[in-house]
Amino acid sequence: MGYIKCEALEETGYVVLDRYNQELDPKEWLDIEYVDWKSSGDTRFAPLASAKGEIECNGFWNHKPPRTDKDGVWIPSQVEKAPILTRRAQEPGANVGRCRVIELQPTPYGECLYNLHQDDNNRLNPDGTGWVVRGFFNLTDDKDSFFVLRENRTDPEGEVRIALPAGAQLIIDTQRLWHAATHVGTDPRYCLITSWTSGPELDAYIEKHNGVNRVESVHVPQDVLEAGYAEQARKDAARAAYYAAKGQAEVRAMSEA
After folding, report:
1. Which end of the chain, N or C, is less packed with Cβ atoms under 10 Å?
2. Is 215 exposed, middle or buried (0-12, 13-18, 19+ CB in 10 A)?
3. Which fold is adopted by the domain 7-245?
4. Could you tell me what percent of the chain has a pLDDT over 70?
Protein backbone atom coordinates (compact mmCIF):
# COMPACT_ATOMS: atom_id res chain seq x y z
CA MET A 1 0.00 0.00 0.00
CA GLY A 2 2.74 2.46 0.92
CA TYR A 3 2.71 5.57 3.08
CA ILE A 4 0.98 8.88 2.37
CA LYS A 5 3.79 11.33 1.64
CA CYS A 6 4.12 15.01 0.81
CA GLU A 7 4.68 15.42 -2.90
CA ALA A 8 6.73 18.57 -2.27
CA LEU A 9 9.36 16.51 -0.42
CA GLU A 10 9.58 13.65 -2.89
CA GLU A 11 12.36 15.04 -5.10
CA THR A 12 14.88 16.42 -2.60
CA GLY A 13 13.54 15.42 0.82
CA TYR A 14 13.13 19.00 2.05
CA VAL A 15 11.28 22.26 1.46
CA VAL A 16 12.10 25.79 2.58
CA LEU A 17 9.09 27.97 3.40
CA ASP A 18 8.69 31.75 3.46
CA ARG A 19 10.66 33.34 6.26
CA TYR A 20 8.70 34.14 9.42
CA ASN A 21 8.99 37.60 11.04
CA GLN A 22 10.44 36.28 14.29
CA GLU A 23 11.19 39.77 15.61
CA LEU A 24 7.50 40.37 16.32
CA ASP A 25 7.27 37.53 18.87
CA PRO A 26 8.56 37.37 22.43
CA LYS A 27 11.42 35.03 23.24
CA GLU A 28 9.20 32.33 24.68
CA TRP A 29 11.94 29.71 24.33
CA LEU A 30 13.82 31.36 27.21
CA ASP A 31 10.97 30.80 29.67
CA ILE A 32 10.16 27.11 29.16
CA GLU A 33 11.70 24.21 31.05
CA TYR A 34 14.60 22.29 29.47
CA VAL A 35 15.88 18.78 30.12
CA ASP A 36 19.27 17.33 29.31
CA TRP A 37 18.79 15.25 26.17
CA LYS A 38 21.65 14.69 23.79
CA SER A 39 21.06 14.58 20.07
CA SER A 40 23.59 15.74 17.48
CA GLY A 41 25.93 17.95 19.45
CA ASP A 42 25.85 19.63 22.85
CA THR A 43 22.09 20.00 23.30
CA ARG A 44 19.18 20.38 25.67
CA PHE A 45 15.48 20.17 24.78
CA ALA A 46 12.32 21.82 26.07
CA PRO A 47 9.33 19.65 25.13
CA LEU A 48 5.97 21.27 24.36
CA ALA A 49 4.28 17.98 23.44
CA SER A 50 5.38 14.51 24.49
CA ALA A 51 4.01 10.98 24.66
CA LYS A 52 1.99 11.52 27.85
CA GLY A 53 2.14 15.27 28.44
CA GLU A 54 5.15 15.05 30.71
CA ILE A 55 8.37 17.05 30.48
CA GLU A 56 10.49 14.36 28.85
CA CYS A 57 11.80 13.65 25.34
CA ASN A 58 11.74 9.88 24.94
CA GLY A 59 10.61 8.21 21.72
CA PHE A 60 6.95 7.29 21.81
CA TRP A 61 7.85 3.64 21.13
CA ASN A 62 9.67 3.49 24.48
CA HIS A 63 6.43 4.09 26.38
CA LYS A 64 3.66 1.67 27.24
CA PRO A 65 1.82 1.08 25.07
CA PRO A 66 4.48 1.80 22.42
CA ARG A 67 3.40 3.83 19.39
CA THR A 68 4.74 5.87 16.53
CA ASP A 69 5.60 9.57 16.64
CA LYS A 70 1.98 10.78 16.40
CA ASP A 71 -0.73 12.08 18.73
CA GLY A 72 1.56 14.01 21.05
CA VAL A 73 0.05 15.33 24.28
CA TRP A 74 0.57 19.04 24.94
CA ILE A 75 2.24 19.89 28.26
CA PRO A 76 0.09 22.51 30.06
CA SER A 77 2.91 24.19 31.98
CA GLN A 78 5.00 24.59 28.82
CA VAL A 79 2.13 25.66 26.57
CA GLU A 80 1.16 28.35 29.10
CA LYS A 81 4.65 29.85 28.83
CA ALA A 82 4.93 29.47 25.04
CA PRO A 83 1.48 29.95 23.46
CA ILE A 84 2.85 31.46 20.24
CA LEU A 85 5.31 28.61 19.67
CA THR A 86 2.48 26.17 20.34
CA ARG A 87 0.25 27.96 17.84
CA ARG A 88 2.97 27.84 15.20
CA ALA A 89 3.38 24.09 15.67
CA GLN A 90 -0.39 23.59 15.40
CA GLU A 91 -0.92 25.95 12.46
CA PRO A 92 -0.59 23.36 9.65
CA GLY A 93 -3.47 21.35 11.12
CA ALA A 94 -1.46 18.15 10.65
CA ASN A 95 -1.17 15.57 13.41
CA VAL A 96 1.60 16.52 15.85
CA GLY A 97 3.81 13.97 17.56
CA ARG A 98 6.79 15.24 19.50
CA CYS A 99 7.22 19.02 19.62
CA ARG A 100 10.12 20.67 21.40
CA VAL A 101 12.65 23.46 21.31
CA ILE A 102 16.29 22.49 20.89
CA GLU A 103 19.12 24.45 22.46
CA LEU A 104 22.35 23.82 20.53
CA GLN A 105 25.73 25.08 21.65
CA PRO A 106 28.27 26.28 19.03
CA THR A 107 29.19 23.45 16.66
CA PRO A 108 31.89 23.74 13.96
CA TYR A 109 31.44 22.22 10.50
CA GLY A 110 33.61 19.14 11.12
CA GLU A 111 31.72 18.32 14.32
CA CYS A 112 28.45 18.82 12.45
CA LEU A 113 29.49 16.29 9.80
CA TYR A 114 30.34 13.76 12.49
CA ASN A 115 26.93 14.42 14.07
CA LEU A 116 24.98 13.77 10.86
CA HIS A 117 22.14 11.37 11.62
CA GLN A 118 18.76 10.13 10.44
CA ASP A 119 15.69 10.16 12.67
CA ASP A 120 13.53 7.17 13.48
CA ASN A 121 10.24 9.02 13.03
CA ASN A 122 8.22 6.16 11.59
CA ARG A 123 8.94 3.27 13.91
CA LEU A 124 5.63 1.39 14.40
CA ASN A 125 3.93 3.65 11.83
CA PRO A 126 1.23 1.54 10.09
CA ASP A 127 1.46 1.14 6.34
CA GLY A 128 -1.12 3.22 4.50
CA THR A 129 -0.96 6.12 6.95
CA GLY A 130 0.87 9.45 6.79
CA TRP A 131 4.68 9.48 6.79
CA VAL A 132 6.11 11.49 9.71
CA VAL A 133 8.42 14.39 8.81
CA ARG A 134 9.79 17.28 10.83
CA GLY A 135 9.46 21.03 10.80
CA PHE A 136 12.37 23.23 11.88
CA PHE A 137 11.61 26.86 12.76
CA ASN A 138 14.79 28.76 13.61
CA LEU A 139 14.15 31.10 16.54
CA THR A 140 17.46 32.88 17.08
CA ASP A 141 19.24 34.96 14.46
CA ASP A 142 22.09 32.62 13.55
CA LYS A 143 23.16 34.36 10.35
CA ASP A 144 26.44 32.47 9.99
CA SER A 145 25.00 29.06 10.88
CA PHE A 146 23.49 26.53 8.51
CA PHE A 147 21.70 23.21 8.34
CA VAL A 148 23.55 20.41 6.50
CA LEU A 149 21.59 17.81 4.51
CA ARG A 150 23.05 14.75 2.78
CA GLU A 151 21.63 11.67 1.09
CA ASN A 152 24.76 9.74 2.12
CA ARG A 153 26.39 10.52 5.45
CA THR A 154 30.00 10.36 4.27
CA ASP A 155 29.56 11.60 0.69
CA PRO A 156 29.62 15.40 0.26
CA GLU A 157 28.34 15.15 -3.31
CA GLY A 158 25.05 17.03 -3.45
CA GLU A 159 25.36 18.37 0.11
CA VAL A 160 22.82 21.11 0.81
CA ARG A 161 23.58 23.87 3.34
CA ILE A 162 20.56 25.95 4.36
CA ALA A 163 20.98 29.33 6.07
CA LEU A 164 19.53 29.77 9.56
CA PRO A 165 18.60 33.41 10.19
CA ALA A 166 15.77 34.11 12.61
CA GLY A 167 12.50 32.96 11.08
CA ALA A 168 13.97 30.37 8.70
CA GLN A 169 11.36 27.61 8.22
CA LEU A 170 12.20 24.15 6.89
CA ILE A 171 10.32 20.87 6.57
CA ILE A 172 12.54 17.83 6.16
CA ASP A 173 12.10 14.10 5.72
CA THR A 174 14.65 13.44 8.44
CA GLN A 175 14.30 9.67 8.16
CA ARG A 176 15.54 9.94 4.57
CA LEU A 177 18.17 12.68 4.85
CA TRP A 178 21.23 12.76 7.08
CA HIS A 179 21.13 16.08 8.87
CA ALA A 180 22.75 18.25 11.55
CA ALA A 181 23.49 21.92 12.13
CA THR A 182 26.72 23.87 11.93
CA HIS A 183 26.32 26.60 14.52
CA VAL A 184 28.79 29.47 14.36
CA GLY A 185 28.84 31.94 17.24
CA THR A 186 29.14 32.12 21.00
CA ASP A 187 25.49 31.95 22.10
CA PRO A 188 23.21 28.92 21.86
CA ARG A 189 20.99 28.38 18.84
CA TYR A 190 17.29 27.77 19.48
CA CYS A 191 14.92 26.04 17.06
CA LEU A 192 11.36 24.71 17.30
CA ILE A 193 11.18 21.12 16.03
CA THR A 194 7.79 19.51 15.33
CA SER A 195 6.92 16.03 14.11
CA TRP A 196 4.08 16.30 11.57
CA THR A 197 2.15 13.60 9.76
CA SER A 198 2.12 13.98 5.98
CA GLY A 199 -1.24 14.45 4.31
CA PRO A 200 -3.44 17.09 2.67
CA GLU A 201 -3.16 19.47 5.64
CA LEU A 202 0.62 19.60 5.45
CA ASP A 203 0.50 19.82 1.65
CA ALA A 204 -1.77 22.87 1.91
CA TYR A 205 0.49 24.48 4.51
CA ILE A 206 3.56 24.06 2.29
CA GLU A 207 1.70 25.58 -0.65
CA LYS A 208 0.38 28.46 1.45
CA HIS A 209 3.90 29.38 2.54
CA ASN A 210 5.44 28.99 -0.92
CA GLY A 211 7.60 25.97 -0.15
CA VAL A 212 10.51 25.38 -2.53
CA ASN A 213 12.52 22.17 -2.70
CA ARG A 214 15.77 23.62 -3.99
CA VAL A 215 17.78 26.51 -2.56
CA GLU A 216 21.30 27.76 -3.15
CA SER A 217 23.68 26.31 -0.59
CA VAL A 218 25.44 28.58 1.87
CA HIS A 219 28.95 29.25 0.60
CA VAL A 220 31.71 27.73 2.72
CA PRO A 221 35.40 28.23 1.82
CA GLN A 222 36.99 25.14 0.31
CA ASP A 223 39.62 24.89 3.04
CA VAL A 224 36.88 24.80 5.69
CA LEU A 225 35.05 22.09 3.74
CA GLU A 226 38.19 19.99 3.40
CA ALA A 227 39.04 20.39 7.07
CA GLY A 228 35.49 19.32 7.94
CA TYR A 229 35.71 16.20 5.79
CA ALA A 230 39.00 15.30 7.46
CA GLU A 231 37.58 15.85 10.94
CA GLN A 232 34.57 13.65 10.20
CA ALA A 233 36.86 10.88 8.91
CA ARG A 234 39.15 11.20 11.94
CA LYS A 235 36.29 10.99 14.41
CA ASP A 236 34.68 8.09 12.53
CA ALA A 237 37.97 6.18 12.59
CA ALA A 238 38.41 6.82 16.31
CA ARG A 239 34.87 5.60 16.97
CA ALA A 240 35.41 2.45 14.92
CA ALA A 241 38.70 1.75 16.73
CA TYR A 242 36.98 2.17 20.10
CA TYR A 243 34.38 -0.46 19.27
CA ALA A 244 36.96 -2.76 17.67
CA ALA A 245 39.03 -2.65 20.86
CA LYS A 246 35.96 -3.78 22.80
CA GLY A 247 35.35 -6.58 20.31
CA GLN A 248 32.10 -5.01 19.16
CA ALA A 249 30.88 -4.10 15.71
CA GLU A 250 30.09 -0.41 15.37
CA VAL A 251 26.41 0.26 14.85
CA ARG A 252 25.35 3.74 13.82
CA ALA A 253 21.66 3.52 14.58
CA MET A 254 19.00 6.09 13.74
CA SER A 255 18.65 8.79 16.31
CA GLU A 256 15.64 8.93 18.61
CA ALA A 257 16.01 12.66 18.95
Report:
1. N
2. middle
3. Jelly Rolls (2.60.120)
4. 95
User: How far is residue 248 CA from its own chain's centroid?
Assistant: 29
Model pTM score: 0.94
Phi-psi sector, 107: left (phi>0), alpha (psi -120 to 50), beta:
beta
Q: What does the pLDDT look like over 143-178, one tens digit per residue?
A: 999 999 999 999 999 999 999 999 999 999 999 999
Answer whether 110's CB lies under 8 Å from 87's CB: no
Q: What are the extents of the domains in the chain?
A: 7-245
